[in-house]
From TrEMBL:
Topology within the bilayer: Single-pass membrane protein
Assembly and oligomerization: Tightly associated with the cellulose synthase catalytic subunit.
Chain segments carrying region Disordered: 307-339
Signal peptide annotation: none
Organism: Polynucleobacter aenigmaticus
Stretches that traverse the bilayer: 695-718
Taxonomic lineage: Bacteria, Pseudomonadati, Pseudomonadota, Betaproteobacteria, Burkholderiales
Protein name (Swiss-Prot/TrEMBL): Cyclic di-GMP-binding protein
Length: 728
């Protein structure tokens, strides 16, 4: 069937930050380049697009020889001229993009051709720069395509890994869902989240009401009739796709079973894959057994089983040879670090580097800089052979070749070095708000950069060689190893929840997690639950196939699990009142051991007033039902605000950390950062060391007080003995 272009248009505006640029795009050197990727859904075509860029450039650039070029998929879009007198100013340009240049996967290239002198100049001079703001925007208008009702295309059009936009996929229940049906929906929302390219996925819930436009997933656990839709007979776990009767260009996916148990089997079968989907409807083969997950083995996380080669990670270890006229090149390996890692030796995560570089006699200014999340970890000098040593080596190789001896003729120098990434960089302190919750907070980027000459050395225009150019390669067998690290973390820790889904994600299938909903939940409670599971699936890369859903009235049945509690409106009040003493609010008169001297004032006073019954908030605390378990509570006095607080988990409204945050209009605010328990375990010697480091100041205070009391008692005793002797 040939797709037909829809007349209805959809417009989306995305910032470069949303497209993957966490900071301003830097263009450095004579030929500085950077790239941004943008994907188009394969059930849409672009009809119009505009790129609005905000930029600035060095005041030293020569207008007649410098410009900023912008390309899409290798095709030139614009050449922005450099004007004298506008250097270091905030400027804007709007570029209209021909729609025919777009494909499914696209790449924008930003290039600076920079010169500050007409004759002799250093191609890596700090005078050669331009910045593109990550607040620059791409506005795209698309026309949807009419696709056939064909399950072979699944998950398209409902979700796609290539989609650069936030996933919003309505979930429809045909009747009040049972806990088992909610588990089925949670499994699919976590799976859709795991294949989404964006940090946030939303699953707005409606009851027996098909959306007026677009796509939706509908859960059917018994035969029913729907106007305008001819449903097949339900024979077991199965799926069925059809056009939306209210929008012929939208699609409806029916997940069906003869009861809620079969509905859950259908969701698990879809989430685990391996089904032969074809045609408009397909029967699903239920999984006989579910894969058994181990702690911290989420597919998206760095494996704890042993050393992992950088070549196995989502990155590259290509050559680091400087490109012509560029300021520097980098190579990176991206990996999501699991939560709760603890370095017992205090050094951090070991990165075992194996690298090679080309020898250049006399050049001893080259360095290899290793950074993590844009923070410098270590600089490694790359020593070269001296001029005479190089000549002797060349002579020996020449003689060996003459007499026929096998010998390597290249001048590569191979080195090994172990770099430790400090734990403070892996998990920033709550005070570092700017990086606690950015979208790359748990993504390790090992940037191996700056093979360059020392900046103190003058550029020699008479030297026609490539000054400072060092051909280098990070060998693929370089490794990162977390297998000897312990899992131990102070709790509560909402940053770990927001960034990694912890503690629930410790087992990727959520087999030790229970979601607790009100006894009479509303659609906002359902939507918040599905959004939270979508976020967890995105972080782990695995569907929550073993999630348990229960109600507040049955909460005792899941006391052995970690609890994600979602409440709203008047339904939340009984539980909040019951657990009020456990919720970490500073204005509660609860005796808690402070971490340091400065926290002692918290015993007697508070600087925070917080009403749990009139706020929208997220709180973490030790489970009142089981001391070895944790609770994350998402609550709102206004049910409609639950959607917003659930959407904030990606950090878009501000960093989430501490033990309690609230939603104030459209911003997240910290209310409490109390931490009064821990999760995980350490060897006894390390645990004792941790206790001393965490509570050293308090230990010293108590020791001084104890010494004073003991001194007073001894003084009183000695005085009594002296008095007795005098009397006798």
């Amino acid at each position: 069937m040939v797709p037909i272009v829809h007349e209805q248009v959809n417009s989306t505006t995305l910032s470069l930050k949303q497209l993957g640029a966490p900071n301003a795009i830097q263009l450095l050197g004579q030929d500085g380049r950077n790239f941004i990727n943008f994907n188009v859904r394969n059930n849409e075509v672009v009809s119009e697009a505009k790129l609005k860029i905000s930029y600035k450039y060095s005041p030293d650039l020569l207008p007649e020889q410098s410009q900023i070029n912008i390309y899409l998929n290798g095709e030139s879009l614009s050449a922005i001229e450099i004007s004298k007198g506008q250097g270091n100013q905030d400027l804007e340009a709007v570029i209209t993009i021909p729609p025919e240049l777009f494909s499914e996967n696209n790449q924008f290239t930003f290039q600076l051709i920079g010169h500050y002198a007409s004759d002799c100049e250093d191609p890596k001079s700090p005078k050669l720069w331009a910045n593109i703001s990550n607040q620059s925007t791409l506005r795209v208008t698309t026309l949807p395509l009419t696709l056939p009702n064909e399950l072979a295309n699944f998950p398209i059009p409902f979700a796609s890994k290539n989609d650069s936009r936030k996933l919003v996929l309505p979930f429809i229940f045909t009747a009040k869902p049972s806990n088992t049906t909610l588990e089925a929906a949670g499994i699919l929302s976590s799976w859709f989240g795991s294949i989404s390219n964006q940090s946030e996925s939303q699953f707005p819930v409606a009851m027996n009401n098909i959306p007026s436009t677009g796509n939706a997933v509908i859960f059917v656990e018994s035969p029913l009739s729907m106007p305008g839709i001819a449903l097949p007979v339900i024979t077991g776990p199965m799926v069925f796709i059809t056009s939306n009767p209210k929008d012929q260009y939208g699609k409806l996916l029916f997940v069906m079973g003869r009861d809620s148990a079969e509905l859950k089997q259908a969701s698990i079968a879809l989430a685990l894959g391996g089904q032969n989907l074809a045609g408009q409807s397909s029967a699903l083969i239920p999984a006989t057994t579910l894969p058994i997950r181990k702690s911290y083995d989420a597919p998206n996380w760095l494996s704890s089983n042993g050393p992992v080669q950088l070549s196995k990670l989502n990155g590259d270890t290509k050559s680091l040879a400087d490109q012509p006229q560029s300021e520097k090149t980098t190579t990176s390996s991206n990996v999501q670090i699991p939560p709760a890692l603890y370095s017992t030796n205090g050094k951090g995560i070991p990165l075992h580097l194996d690298f090679s570089y080309q020898n250049q006699a006399g050049n001893n200014n080259a360095v290899l800089s290793v950074t993590y999340k844009s923070q410098l970890v270590k600089t490694i000098a790359l020593p070269m052979q001296g001029e005479w040593t190089s000549k002797i080596s060349s002579a020996i190789k020449s003689l060996a070749q003459t007499i026929g001896l096998p010998i390597e003729t290249d001048s590569l120098i191979t080195k090994k070095s172990t770099v430790f990434i400090p734990q403070a960089m892996i998990y920033p302190s709550p005070a570092e708000k700017s990086i606690v919750n950015n979208d790359q907070a748990n993504v390790a980027s090992f940037l191996l950069t700056e093979f360059a000459q020392s900046s103190s050395k003058r550029y020699d225009c008479s030297d026609t060689s490539d000054q400072g150019k060092i051909d280098a390669t990070i060998n693929p067998n370089s490794m990162i190893d977390i297998s000897r690290m312990q899992h131990f973390i102070r709790m509560p820790n909402l940053a770990a929840f927001s960034n990694s889904g912890f503690p629930f994600s410790r087992l990727a299938d959520l087999s030790e997690t229970a979601v607790v909903l009100p006894d009479n939940p509303n659609v906002y409670d359902y939507s918040a639950y599905l959004a939270a599971l979508g976020r967890t699936g995105r972080l782990t890369g695995y569907p929550g196939t073993s999630i348990t859903v229960t109600s507040i009235g049955e909460i005792g049945s899941v006391k052995e699990k970690d609890l994600l509690v979602i409440t709203s409106g008047s339904e939340s009040q009984p539980l909040l009142k019951q657990w009020e003493s456990s919720i970490p609010i500073n204005n509660h008169s609860i005796f808690k051991i402070p971490n340091s001297l400065k926290d002692i004032g918290g015993w007697f006073s508070s600087n925070t007033h917080f009403d749990i019954y009139q706020n929208t908030f997220i709180a973490g605390f030790k489970s009142p039902l089981q001391s070895s378990r944790s609770v994350v509570l998402i609550s709102s006095f206004n049910p409609e605000k639950l959607t917003a607080i659930a959407a904030s988990l990606d950090g878009s409204m501000g960093p989430i950390f501490g033990s309690l945050v609230r939603l104030n209009e459209d911003q997240i605010e910290l209310v409490s950062d109390q931490q009064n328990y821990h999760s995980g375990s350490l060897p006894w010697a390390n645990y004792l060391s941790w206790l001393l480091s965490e509570y050293l100041s308090l230990f010293i205070l108590f020791s001084v007080i104890a010494a004073l009391i003991l001194s007073l008692l001894m003084y009183a005793a000695l005085k009594a003995v002296r008095r007795k002797r005098l009397q006798s």
